[in-house]
Amino acid sequence: DTEVTQTPKHLVMGMTNKKSLKCEQHMGHRAMYWYKQKAKKPPELMFVYSYEKLSINESVPSRFSPECPNSSLLNLHLHALQPEDSALYLCASSQGPMKGQTSSYNSPLHFGNGTRLTVT
Amino acid sequence: ILNVEQSPQSLHVQEGDSTNFTCSFPSSNFYALHWYRWETAKSPEALFVMTLNGDEKKKGRISATLNTKEGYSYLYIKGSQPEDSATYLCAHNTGTASKLTFGTGTRLQVTL
User: Fold this and answer.
1) How far from B63 is each of A44, A89, B4, B98, CA to CA, in Å?
2) Are strands B5-7 and B19-24 parallel, antiparallel or unpaired?
3) Whose C-alpha in A19, A26, B43, B102 is 20 to 30 A from the C-alpha of B3?
4) Option in B43, B51, B97 nearest A111 (CB)
């Protein structure tokens, strides 16, 4: 079983809906990530939080809004999505960079099982 | 090489066969190369993180090598078993604030 928990497992939403994806880890990891994966494509990085601060936003449209309420939780708020946003959304965590460094390049990512999102 | 590329895209082997696949990545500004195994309906699981040219790592029947000068890594599976069936992803880190760039993966199917 994964130590990163994502809810819900499946989500169907209309283009006018507002919904949130949730991710939780209790491994003491200080970096948390959102990835988006479409069929037969590699996971694409969306956001990185490091020590609860947003450190990377890969030019993601504002209809996706991340939030890190504390070091164990990561949310992704969804509003006014398009059908092409349908994908598997993966959350991951890692130990995170040491204080004063900008990268934890040698820390493996621990992934959740993902949320399968369908936008109708 | 501008992106992370993996080959082959898919592979079908018999139980007991040994197999290997390739990950190619930009050789400039290298920090780390990650390998993950992703079984259907599960989450991707980290296999190896490799940082030094010439690194070789092993976990049971699975091993990996790294050549940072020419920009490739090989993953080897010795004596494949049905439970090895999964997609194997590699990911390249250029040290930029924990950003990993993934390849499209090699889908391995092992049959009896």
Assistant:
1) 26, 29, 19, 24
2) antiparallel
3) B43
4) B43
Residue pair A50/A97 in contact by the 8 Å Cβ criterion: yes
Q: CB distance A108–B93 less than 8 Å? A: no
The string of pLDDT tens digits covering residues A70-117 is 999 999 999 999 999 999 999 999 987 666 666 667 789 999 999 999
- Residue closest to A117 by CA, chosen among A5, A24, A13: A13
Q: Which of residues 49-108 of A touch B (CB under 8 A)?
A: 50, 55-56, 90, 94, 96-97, 102-108
Q: Do A42 and B42 touch (CB under 8 A)?
A: no
Q: CB A113 to CB B41 under 8 A?
A: yes
Q: Which residue has the tokens 């003491």?
A: A28
Query: How does pLDDT run across A23-66, given as a tens digit for each residue?
Result: 999 999 999 999 999 998 999 999 999 999 999 899 999 999 99
Instruction: Confirm if A78 and A15 have CB atoms less than 8 A apart.
Output: no
